[in-house]
Specification:
six-stranded antiparallel beta barrel, alpha+beta, 344 residues, 5 helices
């Protein structure tokens, strides 16, 4: 009686149980493959470098390290003394340009009077030349006197031409028209532009926050800032996202719009919902300072990773997410494995 069940037991242990385990494993394998997971994921936010539009010395810092600020809130102020001097100099250039235009107009009027006098002298010289020619024909004067009259006429004519050309030069300097408004003269316009720039620089002494965020590394009072140099950084507090780096073999079924579950290491009991926003057009190695040279000597195949941007759904009671926090990401791709995949 005791020996009879042994073959059945052996059959169950060596045949049925392995087949059941294999079938269960195959079923689990077929049901899987629809979720892409990675722990190579991090919280990202916009980091905006803030710089001064003009060079100057920091006079007052209006925020502190790690202080949250709103868009448009003053951050720091530069010393205004050098720029006020520049504005005064620009205003003096405007006045000088207007005075120069007025002087050119006066010079033009004076040369007009001179050309009238020169034309009168030229007309008199022509009459004198004709009288001398008539007297020389009747041999009442010598040929030398006639030559002198001719020379006087030629000199008078050249003087008229010289004054006319000088009048033309002054008119061109006045912008082509003597009667054009002073405000439209190129020299006045250039001086006005310099004054506008000086006023604009003066208005830019107080630097304000371009976005809402948290201040990082503000400048110190007395620090000199060059124009365009980064003075501090603002870490945006609105709309953080997740950057998940999946290997190239995990990207097969990932598409934009797929639902995502995100867990942050800092808040282990909390889950965020999100959506795949976009996939990077290149692997992370392509954006490195020194890209991989795969065509060179020794080559080792390394699975590349592609950044996937995940948009988080807003939640009213969600804790604050800080840039750089580690995350675990699970993307529901909706893919299901088939037996054909196993055979391939």
């Amino acid at each position: 009686m005791s020996a009879a069940p042994r073959p059945l037991l052996r059959f169950v242990l060596l045949g049925v149980v392995p087949l059941a385990l294999a079938a269960g494993g195959l079923w689990l394998w077929l049901q899987g493959g629809g979720t892409a997971r990675t722990d190579n994921a991090y919280v990202k936010t916009d980091k905006v470098p803030v710089s001064a539009a003009v060079a100057g010395t920091v006079q007052a810092v209006l925020v502190a390290e790690n202080q949250p600020v709103t868009a448009g809130q003053p951050l720091f102020r530069l010393d205004d003394a050098p720029l006020r001097v520049a504005l005064a100099r620009a205003e003096a250039r405007v006045a000088q340009a207007r005075a120069d235009v007025a002087a050119l107009r006066a010079g033009y009027r004076a040369r007009q009077a001179e050309i009238a006098l020169a034309r009168t002298r030229f007309a008199f010289a022509e009459r004198e030349q004709r009288r001398h020619a008539d007297l020389a024909a009747r041999q009442f004067i010598s040929a030398a006197r006639l030559d002198e009259a001719r020379q006087a006429t030629a000199l008078a004519a050249q003087q008229v031409v010289a004054i006319e050309r000088d009048l033309q030069r002054i008119a061109e300097t006045l912008g082509g028209s003597v009667d054009a408004p002073v405000a439209r003269h190129p020299a006045v316009l250039a001086a006005e532009a310099e004054r506008m720039q000086a006023r604009l620089d003066l208005d830019r002494l107080e630097v304000r926050a371009p976005i809402a965020g948290t201040v990082s590394r503000p400048p110190k009072p007395g620090q000199y800032l060059a124009a365009g140099a980064t003075a501090l950084a603002l870490v945006a507090s609105d709309e953080p996202w997740i950057e998940a780096n999946f290997t190239e073999t995990e990207l097969t079924w990932i598409r934009a719009g797929q639902p995502v579950t995100v867990r942050i290491d800092t808040y282990p009991g909390r889950a965020w919902r999100g959506t795949v926003d976009s996939l990077s057009p290149a692997t992370g190695a392509e954006f490195s300072v020194i890209p991989a040279q795969n065509a060179s000597g020794n080559w080792v195949r390394i699975a590349q990773r592609v950044p996937v941007r995940i948009r988080l759904e807003p939640a009213a009671d969600a804790p604050v997410l800080r840039a750089g926090l580690s995350a675990h990401v699970a993307i529901e791709t909706g893919h299901r494995r088939r037996l054909a995949d196993l055979l391939r």
